[in-house]
Amino acid sequence: MKLKLAYSNGKIFDAYSIHEGKALLINNGHIEGIVSEDEIPEDYQIRDVQGANICPGLIDLQIYGTGVDLFSSELTKESLLSIDQQLLAQGCTSYMLTLATNTLEVFEEAIRVFRDTKTRAALGLHLEGPFLNPKKRGAHPAELIQQATVPILKGLLDGNSDVVKMMTIAPELVEQDCVDYLNEQHILLSAGHSMATYSEATHAFDHGVPTTTHLWNAMSPLQHREVGLPGAVFNHATACASIIVDGIHVDYEAVKISKKAMQERLFLITDAVAACQKGIYKHILNEDHYVLPDGTLSGSALTLLQAVKNCVEKADIPLDESLRMATLYPSRLINRTDLGTLEVGTVANVLIFDADFKVKTVVLEGEEL
């Protein structure tokens, strides 16, 4: 039920502002404003958060599943809804459900299931593959990686751009006519699993590929005579990059370097998978990350709030900036001005968490979950 709610006695993080001694007002599913606590209207129900932090709901642009629910291995409405529910409980109120390299038939079935399922938080599908560089395939099966052509893309995506919202590609292997077609379909392109040189990556950033998938992982290295994809995204004026801050995919010192170089162009993802013993991707939990049976790193066990905590405690990034990396910056990349902030009129997706980074309350479209 959507009530008139006022969250008070907390620290409110709204984009570039931090408010104390004020209350966040929610009305009819949207943010009504931030006011002094003595200005809360009488018809609002007051929620005392007891000193907790209040911020926009978190946004994850790359996640495969959580717990024991891996969408690509089930391709069912039930698995999708279970993932949705679990992510909401973690404070992630918007996400791109991701599928790794697979057959086109699996992608087509995933699109069908997603279209037929009414989720509460999923923004769309992120296809990580199959148009990747096999030399940097990571956990992706080499036999399923293929060359992109416009006819293949049209067969998969025509009429489905309302579901498929994002795609990771190796830009050095995808011709410009394919990039142009994907841009015409309004699909956000990300450079990843790539051996792109500095020149190739920069060309891609200048011609329709605005971001990069899991910086440092599965890409050409930064070396002193060829700085590769990392060097290209560091030096570009607008190119963005996601990063997995679990201390395993990327060392925390590399996170610090990346943040200094990229500032607001760097954002957080989890790249989280789930325990799975069937299908192409058999993910085995190894303490705090997942591996394939052969030991290949295959995904994180992060929540996005844990990534924020790691940024604060391990990478020396202030809490307000760490939160922007999980809210404002991804919303900016996907052009959703109604998400990622607590500005008046935006969707009332809100996370309230304590000093130990434990979730206290999640609000979705004005409704307390």
UniProtKB/TrEMBL annotation:
Gene3D superfamilies xrefs: Metal-dependent hydrolases, Urease, subunit C, domain 1
InterPro entries: Amidohydro-rel, GlcNAc_6-P_deAcase, Metal-dep_hydrolase_composite, Metal_Hydrolase
Domain Amidohydrolase-related: 54-367
Keyword entries, A-Z: Carbohydrate metabolism, Hydrolase, Metal-binding
Family listed: Belongs to the metallo-dependent hydrolases superfamily. NagA family.
Name assigned to this protein: N-acetylglucosamine-6-phosphate deacetylase
Organism the protein comes from: Sphingobacterium kyonggiense
Lineage start: Bacteria, Pseudomonadati, Bacteroidota, Sphingobacteriia, Sphingobacteriales
Name of the coding gene: nagA
